[in-house]
Amino acid sequence: MCYFNVKTGEIIAIPDSSEFIDEYIFKESFQEQLDAIEDKKADLLK
Asked: Has this prediction a pTM greater than 0.85?
């Protein structure tokens, strides 16, 4: 998935979680990106 921040022009890209066997490994691997998506949700286009 890709998210575009309309205020900053930043693009956040993460793979589909279904590509990972273990959800814990997915969250651990992409925690920084997931936090950024959660924190800036109002400014992001999917």
From this structure: no
Q: How far apart are CA 35 and CA 3, in angstroms?
A: 13
Contact 16, 1 (CB under 8 A): yes
Give the three-class secondary structure for 1. Answer: coil
pLDDT digits (tens, 9 = 90+) for 1-45: 999 999 999 999 999 988 888 989 999 999 999 999 999 999 999
Using DSSP, state whether 12 is helix, strand or coil. strand
Q: Can you tell me the distance from the alpha carbon of 21 to that of 15, in angstroms, rounded to the nearest whole number?
A: 13
Q: For residues 10 and 2, is the Cβ–Cβ distance under 8 A?
A: no
